[in-house]
Amino acid sequence: MVYYRTMGEIPSKRHTTFKREDGSLYREQVMGTKGFSGIQSILYHHHFPTAVTEATFIKKTTPEYEAESALRHRHFRTAQYDKKGDAVVERCYFLGNEDVILGVVNPTEPMDYFYRNGDGDELFFIHHGSGKIESMFGELSYKPGDYIVIPIGTIYRVIPEGNDNRWLVIEANSAITTPRRYRNEYGQLMEHSPFCERDIDGPERLLSHDKKGSYEVVTKTRGGLHRHMFDHHPLDVVGWDGYLYPWKFNINDFEPITGRVHQPPPVHQTFEGHNFVVCSFVPRLYDYHPDAIPAPYFHSNVDSDEVLYYVEGNFMSRKGIEEASITLHPSGIPHGPHPGKIEASIGKKETLELAVMIDTFRPLKVIEQVQQYEDENYMKSWVTE
Asked: Which CATH number fits domain 254-382: 3.30.360.10, 3.90.1150.10, 2.60.120.10, 1.10.357.10?
């Protein structure tokens, strides 16, 4: 959960008259979750947020998963996906289930339309590139290492800078929040949390567009894309307040929790959604017990699938992966360090690895179109001569 914020102009009391200079009313919109019992924000528009002149169905977006195959560890070289374009159309999805879908995108072109996800929150990890996201809540700039959370129903567009942009995309069918165990009963991040509210940033500037015309908003929901044409600019908010808005947190502000012996993955947790968590592996000191083995022990995922997105550095437990690799270690079979990695870690003082991990509590399925990026020999990479 993030904290209360306000931007622009709002009346002193909610659900009361708030007038423009000409005496007409601004249009109040309550945007909330869980049927008015979750977090919410209240926005004030120049125009009716319901003023849609045309609604059309674009296409189905239900993923096509591969046929049932042998249970095995998988490795996908996502860097080989080099198609560029805008931040929505050119998303390439790799894995998914009923709760979340994971992919990458190389956004180099500004969106000439607006977008909203009506099914759940979106989480972007900015691997490379910079730019800004314009939304109904204001502008939010981004740079490498940023995690960006876009709440369900937020209208936005992405304006990237340059041609070297690569994101990891996580689309949920739920809210994405900070871990519950790091928050007190009031929602504040506590002292044992690896980050706090000082590390979180919301929109930096609110620009209100009081313009009439024809504007396209693409909405993803109910297994499809829908086009809504508005008779006014959709980013026409003059002010808002509340707890629901886009926000960012940079992975370099994550302070790792270490111990005398190897710490389990939950100490790296950064976000959680329904039936999945997101963790950050960052540069950190190794364990300081005199006989410690810094490399992780072999472990069985008895109730979760593990996905790793490799950002940079020499990942201490892996061989044969590269920047932007995605590995899938499914539940039902054990996984762990590659041969030689345990011995090589003994006596080392630190690691400079950077990676994002997603653990899902329902099995993930591989999307059929990405088999071309797979390293077919990954499952055998633990077999020694």
From this structure: 2.60.120.10
